[in-house]
Please model this.
Amino acid sequence: MVFKPQTFFGNEPSTAALETTSGTAIETRVAEALARAGDMDAADVSVTAVDDTIVLSGTVAFPEEIAIAGDIAARIAGVTSVENLIATAGNDNAQPWLT
Model:
């Protein structure tokens, strides 16, 4: 089997577009990763990008899901920090978990 270098219409693909990702693109990637996570329900979680920081807010059912959401967001390319303001449902005095 012979592997050829990747090309796009005969040209090498450009990675410049990946290096300059907008806040909207990062928000989308984080939201999609949270939606695909099998160990949490992110239906009531909002994702907002402020520069290269992701702000998570909303509610989840279990405290463990707060840390899971922060970990998932922190692993997305382009995210340098996560401010995790997610609370558990029904807890009015929740403390934010900073990741």
